[in-house]
Amino acid sequence: MNDKAIKVLEFNKIKNILKDYTNTTAGKDIIDELVPYENIYEVKEHIEETKEAFKLLVTKGAPPFEGVYDVRDGISRAGKGSVLIPGQLLKIASMLRAARRFKDYINHKEEEESFRVLENICEGITLLKNIEDHIFNAIVGEEEISDKASSKLYNIRRSLKDKNYSVRGKINSLVRSYSSYLQENIYTVRGDRYVLPVKAEHKGAVKGLVHDQSSSGATLFIEPISLVNLNNEIKELMLKEKAEIERILDELSREVYQNIEVVRINADIIWELDFIFSKAKFASEYNCTYPIINDKGIIDIIEGRHPLIDRKEVVPISANLGKDFTSLIITGPNTGGKTVTLKTVGLIHLMAMSGLMIPARENSVVAYFDEVFADIGDEQSIEQSLSTFSSHMKNIVDIIDRSDDKSLVLFDELGAGTDPTEGAALAVSILENLRKRNTKIIATTHYSELKGYALKTEGVENASVEFDVETLKPTYRLLIGVPGKSNAFEISKRLGLPNYIIDYARDNISNDNLKFEELIQSLQEKSIKAETDARLAENLKLEAHKEKSKLKDKMEKLQNVRDKEIFGARREAKNIIREAKEEADKILKDIRQIERMGYSSEARQKLEEQRKKLKDKLDAAEEKAIKPEAKGEALKNVEEGQEVFVPSLNQKVIVLSKADNKGEVLVQAGIMKVSVKLKDLRASNTTSSSSNNKGNRKKSKKKMKLNIKSVSSSVDLRGMDSQEAEYTVDKYLDEAYMAGLGEVTIIHGKGTGVLRKAITDMLKRHYHVKNYRLGEYGEGGSGVTVAELK
């Protein structure tokens, strides 16, 4: 993107406002580097991250940036093996804590809306709770080490406290003894040693070491001989305390050094999140919305507001371009809002292409352009001896050289600054040249010739800024499809110009021109009504589509919750009945034990009959609780890929295997695989058997994939043992394969490498895995394994 457009459209002022919403200098530095992204995919992803952060602000409140500082200097020093000062370590721990809290902040319940982009960003965060805790336990302030940092430091400080208490008691006694020789009846400290302020003339009366004297020389600060040993002991303890503090800081710094790459990645993610949430806070403050992005050059901005104009005074502007026409010629009086319209459209596009939400109504459409060019304002240059016209023309030459069908060009007063006839002809020629390249153009002008050019040229449309003749003030509304009317006679009349002068002027204008002006006025009135009605209809249509989509998502979530509840209830019922049967069997076993102690055979027979009745009742209850009444045709054989109905699950499933020697069949129910008995399967009304048709089986399998719920592209094994991890990965790979994922990420951490080896050995022989590798830089390094599925 050319720097001139960024400067003219004042995008740098938007960046300065963004900085006010950051928490760190690192976040501000990212904003300094912010420019429009280089492709539409990046634009959509970065706007999506802003949208997700905006939703989080609304639903969960402020993000966990408390106590976060720019610790790039501390991380750099730690990376070189230097010992960090307490303040630097404390700030690094605060950053690690914020990273850990962000994991919780981003997390959501299964039925809640996910935050795809931000979750992917936070996936790179590695928790370092141990380092975080060690630092917070050892350091309590910028310059203060906690007594609990080590047992040795605690003992040293306790001894130091005792010694200080002893020496203060002794020196207070000496103050009373030598009170007549002292300047004041107090003691003081010089060089960490307790001393007495002795009058110079009595220095011989107090035996000890002179450490200092006052500026006048009247007072000597003497350490009494009786305190020397105690002071020495205190000094020695203070040296030990200092050495222990240095050891603690060295140990904490070494912990950071040993995990420096993880710390650096966590910090980079926090800076990135700081930048993202500054965009969200800006969007919240300026009432911005999520734009629809396209790469076809279509613009449809609904009530766009220039963010640098006072929000109490700014008038919303609606503008469209790129569907029925590629060039828009705006005419109208000075101070009517033509230049503001240009700047609003240009700045909104720069904001959107930089990943920001835009100050406009919902459903506004912006286009991705490779370049946005702007020739706006008085560019007269005294240094280059260029007139206004020459300066503009120099800029226009550059625009013509570089513009194509992926460019948006904004011209303000095209052709002005020279002879009107020549200027108008030149303006038409420039516009026509760019139109043939399919360049998207918005130009303002005062030339009537350009109105005619727009009327007779396909792909070019007139527009005007509305003017209220009654108040003699512009309304700043943009009217597309209607050229601007001069309003000179009406304005002159309202200002008091005599009628005979106005009538004489009318007589000097041809009838054709007068009719043209009247036609413009009629078109203007009709256009306003048509535009209002069309915009209202379009908004209602889009809102209806959104509501329909929301209801559909809600129904799917309710269905998922319902299925889970049914599964859970049946499982619980089965467990209750199983426990009841076990309890009944235990009771009957105890009764049989009692029988041996003297019951008759007739009593045993009756007990056995009762036991059988009890068992039959429990079996019937189990059958009723677990298996609802099965309707439909029972199946004797099934084929892989066949769709069947399972009454106990109350849903259709896909057969994954034929019946085994136990008469059980493996089926796919949603994202779960379960085994059911062949006798419990029923024919599906909508299924077509694939037993004799291989093509139908493939079609059924394809349908199965389409019906499977979305599966995450990664699985986290950290904290699991090898056996649990292998089971989890095996289940996950089945789900990922059925969902049609091509590549998945297995997060096992670095640690001792045992978990990574177990997973690698498993992937070597897994039937779904085509290839696998360790993660690269930016993917998690050796802490993850990336598997390519067949």
UniProtKB/TrEMBL annotation:
Residue span of region Disordered: 682-705
Protein name according to UniProt: Endonuclease MutS2
PANTHER family: OS10G0509000 PROTEIN (PTHR48466:SF2), OS10G0509000 PROTEIN-RELATED (PTHR48466)
PROSITE patterns in the cross-refs: DNA_MISMATCH_REPAIR_2, SMR
Binding site for ATP: G332, P333, N334, T335, G336, G337, K338, T339
UniProt lineage: Bacteria, Bacillati, Bacillota, Clostridia, Eubacteriales
EC number: 3.1.-.-, 3.6.4.-
Low complexity biased stretches: 684-694
Keywords recorded for this protein, A-Z: ATP-binding, Coiled coil, DNA-binding, Endonuclease, Hydrolase, Nuclease, Nucleotide-binding, RNA-binding, rRNA-binding
HAMAP family, sorted: MutS2 (MF_00092)
Pfam families: MSSS, MutS_V, Smr
Sequence ranges assigned to domain Smr in this UniProt record: 715-790
Family: Belongs to the DNA mismatch repair MutS family. MutS2 subfamily.
Subunit structure: Homodimer. Binds to stalled ribosomes, contacting rRNA.
Gene: mutS2
Compositionally biased residues, Basic residues: 695-705
A GO term for molecular function: endonuclease activity
Source organism per UniProt: Clostridium oceanicum
Residue ranges the record marks as coiled coil: 227-255, 506-624
Job description of the protein: Acts as a ribosome collision sensor, splitting the ribosome into its 2 subunits. Detects stalled/collided 70S ribosomes which it binds and splits by an ATP-hydrolysis driven conformational change. Acts upstream of the ribosome quality control system (RQC), a ribosome-associated complex that mediates the extraction of incompletely synthesized nascent chains from stalled ribosomes and their subsequent degradation. Probably generates substrates for RQC. Endonuclease that is involved in the suppression of homologous recombination and thus may have a key role in the control of bacterial genetic diversity.
